[in-house]
Amino acid sequence: MCQRYRMANKVKQVSYYLLVFSFLATAACLLISYPYAELFSIPIQVAAHILTIVFAGSFKIAVVALMAVTSELKTITANTNSASNLCCPTK
Hints:
mainly alpha
């Protein structure tokens, strides 16, 4: 039980980091691609357009992973009679 709980919390933490990174990277790529395009060369603009799709996809994956791990954590805590049954303290 405790191992599942620890693993779920690790996935939750990684999902949060990926969510923030993907959002910032997508925003940066969009800024490079459109409003500030005249400041960058064509190869950089092409890379920014492609990376916009890649980072948007990773954002979606992070959201789905976060929803799944939240559901898993609710299941873990619901299956224990009390929080004291977990070998790890709940937050």
